[in-house]
Structure formats: structure tokens, C-alpha cells
Amino acid sequence: GRHPMTPSKLTTTIELREHLRNTADPRARIGLTNGCFDVLHPGHIWALQQASRRCNPLIVCLNSNWSILQLKGPGRPIHGQNARAYQLSALQCVDHVVIFNALDCHQEILILRPDIYFKSEEYEDHQNPDEALALKEVGATIHWTPRLPGYSTTACLRRPGERVPPNPPSLEDTRPDSLGDHSPPSTPDALAIAEAAMSVCQL
């Protein structure tokens, strides 16, 4: 039978391309984003929700375990690729999840041909050149998504005992006019929780 943590929206690039062809809607605006989503936090969810409002469907290309190891180094990922795909599949704002086993997702861009590509604004000045060429080839618009202040994977993995600035922003304070300077959230036990999760989530 199916594993209880089988990601419901996980598919392959080729299967998804055929699905999109067979369900072609002239009003559809295919959106695509990519990332590790190793420790899913409110900043990730907020960005995905913002993206989903500008497209239909929203595809998330997820870095494989091997890909994250190459990009982030030893000790990563915290959560295995199936666990990460399972989390993303649970989000209403995500329509499809594809795992890619490379350092970037330019091949997925060429195959899936999105109309709009979402990426965090922190990468605007150093965009991956292969992804940039692929996006230009398929004619995709790039939308640089603002970060939700105070939330990052780095903050989530802050080691116990490190100085943690107080007073993180609340989710109630995320109106466009309130996204000013905020301190990272206090998560002193996040690493211990993540390490415990590794034993059951490295699928």
C-alpha cells in the first residue's frame, strides 16, 4: 500500500509536461519556483502564497538530497526529499511538486515552459546564468518575491546558545506597509528538533 507520507502532488517533469499539455487552458498562467525548502518556515509559505495568487497552476521544483548536499555541504539536507515534497504537497497554494537532481533547474524550465518564474529578491543580483538563459528562451516573466522579514532557514538552524535577537514579527504584521525591519525569530531548540527529525525523515 501507499506510504502514509506519500507526497500527493509529487510527479516527474515528463509526466507533468504531458499533464499540462492534456489539460491546456488558454487562460492558464503556469508559474514555477524552485528551492530546497529544507526547513519549511513561514517565510517559505508566505512566498508560495504570494506566487499562487499570480498564476495557475504553481509548480515547485524541489532540490534533491544530492543537490542540497552539493550546494549546502555536509549535514544538509535536514529533511529528506520525500519529506520535503510531502510538506509542500500539504500546502493548498502548491499544485505540483517536481524533484530535480541537479545544481539548478534550467532543464525543468525548458521542459515545463512556465509563463512566470518566482524567485526571492535576494537572488536578483546573482541569478543563475543557465536558469536565466532558459527563462529567456521560453519567454517567461521573472517575478522577484520580497522576503518575509525575520524568517530564514539560517535563523531556524541557529545553534542553541547563540545570541537570538528578541521580538520576531508576528504573522499578523505582514501587511505590505508593515514589512519593515524585524529581528529574526527566537528558535533556540530548532536544531535539536531538526536533528531528531532526520532519523525519520531521510526518505
Q: Short summary of the structure?
A:
This protein has helices at 13-22, 42-52, 65-72, 81-89, 106-112, 129-138, 153-156, 190-201, and strands spanning 10-11, 31-35, 58-63, 96-100, 116-120, 141-145. It is built from eight helices and six strands, in the order βαβαβααβαβαβαα. It is an alpha/beta fold and 203 residues long.
**DSSP strand tally:** 6
* Biggest sheet details: 6 strands, parallel
Structural class: alpha/beta
Number of helices: 8
Strand content: 5-15%
CA distance, first residue to last residue: 16 Å
Report helical residue fraction.
25-40%
Rounded to the nearest angstrom, the radius of gyration is 17 Å
Mean pLDDT across every amino acid position: 80
**Secondary-structure element order, as H and E?**
EHEHEHHEHEHEHH
What's the shape? Answer: globular
User: Which stretches of 5+ consecutive residues score pLDDT under 50?
Assistant: 162-203
How are the strands of the biggest sheet laid out side by side? 1-4-3-2-5-6
Characterise the protein shown here.
By secondary structure, this protein is an alpha/beta fold. Helices cover 35% and strands 14% of the residues. The chain is built from 8 helices and 6 strands. A 6-stranded parallel β-sheet has the order 1-4-3-2-5-6. Helix 5 runs parallel beside helix 6. The relative contact order is 0.17. The C terminus is likely disordered.
